[in-house]
Write a structure and sequence with these properties.
mainly beta, 5 strands, disordered N terminus
Length: 89
Amino acid sequence: MDETEFMRGRVYGADHEDAGPRPGRRYAELVGGPLDGLLLDVTDGVGEAREVVLATEIGRYGAGGRAVYAWGAGDARRLEWRGDLPGVA
């Protein structure tokens, strides 16, 4: 199993021991970029933002970097990668 396959279906920011989706929560799939295949919990209003900026160590800028995702056209279940940003100094 490679890293991409291992991460698919896991929830961004969840504990590594229990990273699967939880009942009663809403999730959007992260598509493309360094977090491809992860799920983002959007239950508490993240869905109202046009974009989300997520911390990641596996993007273009390494530790401290961030990945930008925006809602896919007409699909409330997908956030599409827009690019990476350097960390804040």
